[in-house]
Design brief:
The complex is a heterotrimer. Chain A is an all-alpha fold. In chain A, 82% of the residues lie in helices and 0% in strands. Chain A is built from twelve helices and no strands. In chain A, helix 5 packs across helix 7. Chain A is globular, with a radius of gyration of 23 Å. Chain B has two domains: 226 residues, Rossmann fold (3-Layer(aba) Sandwich), CATH 3.40.50; 123 residues, Nucleic acid-binding proteins (OB fold (Dihydrolipoamide Acetyltransferase, E2P), Beta Barrel), CATH 2.40.50.140. In chain B, the strands form four sheets. Chain B has a six-stranded mixed β-sheet with strand order 6-7-8-3-9-10, sandwiched between helices. Chain B has a five-stranded antiparallel β-sheet with strand order 13-12-11-14-20. Chain C has one domain: MetI-like (MetI-like fold), CATH 1.10.3720.10. The longest helix of chain C is centred in the first third of the chain and has 31 residues. The interface between A and C is large, with 92 and 89 residues.
Chain lengths: 278, 360, 264
């Protein structure tokens, strides 16, 4: 009883702060929006092809970014996990460093590279490969490149943690039992690393769905994703109802992804011993 | 140095009774071993004495005073934890000095006492190392030094030797006993290893499912366990079931299968003729016999395992149950060979077969 | 590794990913020293004028820096208090609903910061008269709390609680146990969490841009505003300075707690 009281006392400050400044406003504004306009703003979103297109763009960009991050991140993480510590240390720094540099700065770097007069076009035209500058900046491609750059460190770090915890002897055991490298990978390493893959993908997908800076800076004024649209509705169209609808729909999508992942992988994770923290 | 008394000590976790009406009185400077399997309540008992958990009922008296209301940090009980629980962010010196610094002793005195203690546990020169830089045996001795340097009134050792290899374990048994006697601290040691309990303690307490099964000197427990459970725990491996006959001249005949074994009871056993009973004997007390006689039964060797100082046989065909003699002289026995085994009457323990009595 | 083929492929991908990650950062550093407004490669000459420009022209970067530091430091300090106590309540005691409580403490992570920013904006407009600093501060201290909680929990999760018992048996009272044993041992997690939380606040854009007032604008917003008007290497110069600061921080972290903390 005494200990329970202590636990509650320790949990109290953070709980109250969250309740007062986070949970309450989130619910209050939702209720207010519904009370003022009913579900009109939400139905407008789902019936207007303009908004649906934005949702689709957001999903598409996020899925592509997640897939490419996994595809490139997995071999990188595997290599890091199996590399002597000196080299790994250097790679961790390279991966953490852009991770600590703001999205604004990183997007700016890509603007310098990908712009019409940017380094990439200068380089390609200098070589005579193209005569007209390529238009990459202010397109979806630029956003995806920036997004991968922003998020691949999260993917790699999720994967390295799990891959590192796989005993290399498990691999040798598979070889000794006659498994080819390919079989060892598909039957042993890959299944053991699924907790990292899932958590990495969910993280990257969610962050990409909600990202604001990268689409705003690299996508230009005509490229819209959910997050940039919220700001545009507030600052440009002054349509707060639409902003509310987009905000809460985006939140619902994120929560739905979390719930689906927990429901579908819960059993699997349990069988695997709950991942690395078991 | 102090006396310790536990009276009707009981601990419940929900419906589960971890310690059930435990009574014990420990003399000044005595070393007691709490022996039992996992979940028998021995560690819970330790935690109650230390004050980490409150008893459900019962009292704990130190030097005759009830300590239940004293918080754990004022009880002055030294504890050695099973996994040592050394502070990883402190050096050996800082670990050992921790308790003394809290007492706000002068620096010079702290240094002197820590150094004395480190030399007592033979760790001189390692005081600037961190725990992770020490071997298992060295860490163990740091933990011991840390628990004793504050001159606790009572020392509690929780499985002190379980993480050590066999050779180190024997060395440390000697060390612990030497240091404990040198400082004369009242000590309770928790262990699941009967050899450790017997070689370290002045008295041994065997526990099972929260209840005390037997309290006695190592010899008593080792030679005369009070129940088949305690016998099993103390390493007896041959158990025979039979039916008692009438006692004659201090010898109780028990018919086991087609043979009758005589057990020296001298009237001490509460067994009536016709009672079902259990016999048990230590493997090393079973001997080879040259010729037939009383308490000599022949059987066939099934396996023979050379154990260095003994040869352990598995013999069937004597009784319904298998017999496991441990022979001290090395003799080669082939599989299927017939041997004659002698069961000394004064070495056999006999108990009423409670299970069978209940079934009837 | 027996398998040269897979390993070769892994190494190639790893090298390419590293180059990909570093490329824009290297470009920024080089760009900050070019004398021309248009960044060219190879750079034509060397100049520090863009660095000077940060201070001499009306970029307001220094004003933004001060405001960002104020918000970041205050929000992080508050969250270390809230987050460490919250993490302790989850890890130190065994009770049903522990996981639910952890999810509650980390719930701001699952909410898009734009959505939260919008909600706060509406709330403030109803309340009226909420000063600029407080507007952003409330948003930031909520959104970064999960980082402190999660990193502290990751250490306390594997914490050997027997150490507290050991200290208690040696005469340490609960307060002494907390400050001499628990906090020093949880320090790597707390520091890592605090660093991530601070950086998140320092670099945060969505909340800050919606909630800022003309008199209270943080550095990232200043940079973005500048970018919309003038696209010159002054941006590269301020970016380079920020990267140097990050580099210093990461080296400091490596010294203090080791980088493994970030791979949990």
């Amino acid at each position: 009883m005494e200990r329970k009281k202590q636990a509650l006392l320790l949990a109290l400050p953070a709980s109250l702060a969250l309740l007062l400044f986070f949970i309450f406003p989130m619910i209050y504004i939702l209720i207010r929006t519904l009370a003022e306009n009913g579900t009109a703003d939400f139905t407008a979103f789902f019936t207007d092809p303009f908004y649906l297109d934005i949702l689709w763009t957001t999903l598409r960009v996020s899925l592509i970014s997640t897939a490419v991050s996994l595809l490139l991140g997995y071999p990188t993480a595997y290599y890091m996990a199996r590399t002597p510590s000196r080299l790994k240390q250097a790679m961790v720094i390279v991966i953490l460093f852009p991770f600590l540099v703001s999205a604004v700065v990183r997007s700016y770097g890509w603007m310098v590279i990908l712009g019409t007069n940017g380094l990439l076009n200068q380089f390609l035209m200098g070589l005579g490969l193209i005569s007209e500058p390529l238009k990459i900046l202010n397109t979806e491609t630029a956003v995806i490149i920036g997004m991968i750059h922003l998020l691949i460190p999260y993917m790699i770090l999720s994967l390295v943690g799990v891959l590192q915890s796989i005993d290399p002897n498990v691999e040798y055991a598979a070889y000794s039992l006659g498994a080819s490298p390919m079989t060892t990978f598909t039957r042993v390493i890959f299944p053991l690393s699924t907790p990292g893959i899932i958590s990495g993908c969910v993280l990257v997908f969610t962050m990409s769905m909600t990202s604001y800076v990268t689409p705003k800076l690299l996508g230009g004024s005509k490229f819209r994703m959910m997050a940039t649209m919220v700001v545009q509705e507030i600052n440009v169209s002054f349509d707060w109802g639409a902003a509310a609808a987009i905000s809460y729909i985006l939140l619902a999508v994120i929560l739905a992804v979390q719930v689906v992942v927990v429901l579908t992988t819960g059993k699997y994770m349990k069988r695997m011993g709950g991942g690395k923290n078991a | 140095m102090a006396t310790l008394e536990l009276q009707h000590l009981t601990k419940k976790f929900g419906d589960f009774t971890a310690v059930d009406d435990m009574n014990l009185s420990v003399a000044e400077g005595e070393m007691i071993a709490l022996l039992g399997g996992s979940g028998c309540g021995k560690t819970t008992t330790l935690r109650m004495i230390a004050g980490f958990t409150e008893p459900f009922s019962g009292t704990i008296l130190v030097d005759g005073k009830d300590v239940r209301s004293i918080p754990p940090y004022r009880r002055n009980v030294g504890i050695f934890f099973q996994n040592y629980a050394l502070f990883p962010h402190m050096t050996v010196f800082e670990n050992v000095a921790f308790g003394l610094k809290l007492q706000k002793l002068p620096k010079a005195e702290i240094r002197e006492r820590v150094e004395n203690m480190l030399s007592l546990v033979k760790l001189v020169g390692l005081d600037r190392r961190y725990p992770r830089e020490l071997s298992g045996g060295q860490q163990q001795r740091v933990a011991l030094a840390r628990a004793m340097v504050t001159r606790p009134t009572i020392l509690l050792l929780d499985e002190p030797l379980s993480n050590l290899d066999a050779k180190l374990r024997v060395e440390m048994q000697v060390e612990i006993k030497r240091i404990q006697k040198e400082l004369g601290i009242t000590t309770i040691i928790v262990t699941h290893d009967h050899e450790e309990a017997v070689s370290l303690a002045d008295r041994v307490i065997v526990m099972n499912a929260g209840r005390v099964q037997q309290i006695g000197t190592p010899q008593e427990i080792f030679d005369r366990p009070v129940s088949p459970f305690v016998a099993d725990f103390m390493g007896f491996s041959t158990f025979l079931h039979g039916v008692a006959g009438p006692e004659e001249n201090g010898l109780l005949p028990v018919k086991c299968g087609s043979h009758t074994l005589h057990v020296r009871t001298d009237g001490g056993a509460d067994i009536a003729p016709g009672d079902a009973c259990v016999l048990t004997i230590r493997s090393e007390n079973i001997a080879l016999a040259k010729e037939p006689g009383d308490n000599v039964v022949s059987g066939q060797v099934r396996t023979s395992t050379y154990k260095g100082h003994t040869t352990r046989l598995e013999v069937t065909g004597c009784f319904d149950e298998t017999v496991y003699p441990a022979l001290s002289e090395y003799t080669e026995h082939k599989e299927g060979e017939t041997v004659q085994l002698y069961f000394p009457p004064e070495r056999i323990c006999v108990y009423k077969d409670e299970k069978k009595m209940e079934d009837q | 590794m027996r398998d040269g083929h897979v390993n070769w492929l892994c190494r190639l991908v790893a090298v390419l990913v590293m180059l990909f990650l570093v490329a824009p950062l290297v470009v920024i550093v080089l760009a900050s020293f070019t004398p021309t407004a248009l960044v060219t490669f190879p750079p034509q000459g060397f100049s520090l004028k863009w660095y000077a420009n940060i201070f001499t022209s009306s970029t307001h970067f220094m004003d933004g820096l001060v405001k960002s530091l104020e918000i970041g430091i205050l929000a992080t300090l508050l969250d270390v208090l809230l987050g460490v106590t919250a993490a302790l309540s989850i890890c130190r005691y065994d009770f049903r609903g522990k996981n639910a409580l952890l999810n509650y403490f980390t719930s701001p992570m699952y909410v898009p910061s734009v959505a939260f920013a919008f909600v706060l904006l509406q709330l403030y407009s109803q309340l009226g008269g909420v000063p600029g600093m407080l507007r952003i501060f409330i948003g930031h201290f909520i959104i970064i709390l999960p980082y402190v909680v999660r990193n502290t929990v990751s250490v306390l999760h594997v914490f050997n609680w027997t150490l507290e018992d050991a200290a208690t048996s040696l005469g340490a009272n609960p307060v002494q146990v907390f400050f001499k044993i628990t906090i020093p041992l949880a320090k790597p997690g707390i520091l890592a969490g605090a660093l991530l939380a601070f950086l998140y606040s320092f670099d945060e854009v969505a909340l800050s841009s919606l909630l800022s007032t003309p008199r209270f604008i943080t550095l990232p917003i200043r940079i973005m505003n500048y970018m919309e008007l003038t696209f010159d290497p002054t941006l590269a110069a301020i970016s380079t300075l920020l990267m140097v600061a990050s580099l210093v921080l990461i080296i400091l972290m490596e010294r203090l707690v080791g980088l493994d903390m970030f791979m949990k």
